[in-house]
Amino acid sequence: MSSAKYNRVVLKLSGEALAGNLGFGLDPAVIKSVSEQVKEVAELGVEVAVVVGGGNIWRGKVGSEMGMDRATADYMGMLATVMNSLALQDSLEQQGIETRVQTSIEMRQVAEPYIRRRAIRHLEKKRVVIFAAGTGNPYFSTDTTAALRAAEIEAEVILMGKNNVDGVYSADPLKNPNAIKYDELSYLDVLKEGLAVMDSTASSLCMDNDIPLIVFSIMEKGNIKRAVMGETIGTIVRGK
């Protein structure tokens, strides 16, 4: 094992991050960059699980606001995460990294069903595991999925890679140039101030299970490795 600070991590990627500057769909250059960064970490001996969002293809909340049944809209969003997961799996395997996709909604022709003990075994064998289709339930975000899976597999940290910010700010830095970047926060701070880090369900789950969260820019190459090695990047959220 290397001198990495964390041995088992959950990497949370938003769908928007995979779209890059395209704004919609998949940017092959971004997916390749992410897979290269994951490979860099996996080769250190770190066990990596990934949770991918689907907002670059479909957002359940948007569908609901259009008048669609919320549960149906959310299930469509879960299917979008499967598409992203398969794209990331393909890119990782092109890099020579053995990868498994596990889905919360069964679709055995394209991926394994999510089984906690099997996922842990894959990680122990140094395979990258991608958790797709959210929790398998409507009304829960992929942020909550990341928190839930991190607790289930006993991950030591959640790494949240963003594509347009490099940490947590007091306001949207793209809209407010006076927004203040935080180096460290507690989950209570996030909940009290309503900071757009992750939704309240996910924040509460992380807080209750004492799982730290590191928010950083995925667009800067090497940042996943820096986070895993314990370097100070982005914003760390922890404890109460």
UniProtKB/TrEMBL annotation:
Sequence positions that bind ATP: K12, L13, S14, G15, G55, R59, N163, Y169, D172
Reactions catalysed: UMP + ATP = UDP + ADP
Localization terms from the record: Cytoplasm
Superkingdom of source: Bacteria
GO BP: any one term: 'de novo' CTP biosynthetic process
Biological pathway: Pyrimidine metabolism; CTP biosynthesis via de novo pathway; UDP from UMP (UMPK route): step 1/1
One cellular component term from this protein's GO annotations in UniProt: cytoplasm
Boundaries of every Aspartate/glutamate/uridylate kinase domain copy: 7-217
One Gene Ontology molecular-function label: ATP binding
Activity regulation annotation text: Allosterically activated by GTP. Inhibited by UTP.
Keywords in alphabetical order: Allosteric enzyme, ATP-binding, Cytoplasm, Kinase, Nucleotide-binding, Pyrimidine biosynthesis, Transferase
Binding site for UMP: G54, D74, T135, G136, N137, P138, Y139, F140, S141, T142
Broad class of enzyme this protein falls into: transferase
Region of interest (Involved in allosteric activation by GTP), ranges: 20-25
UniProt-listed Enzyme Commission number(s): 2.7.4.22
Quaternary structure (record): Homohexamer.
Family the UniProt entry places it in: Belongs to the UMP kinase family.
Physiological role: Catalyzes the reversible phosphorylation of UMP to UDP.
Name used for this protein in its record: Uridylate kinase
Phylogenetic placement of the source organism: Bacteria, Bacillati, Bacillota, Bacilli, Bacillales
The gene coding this protein: pyrH
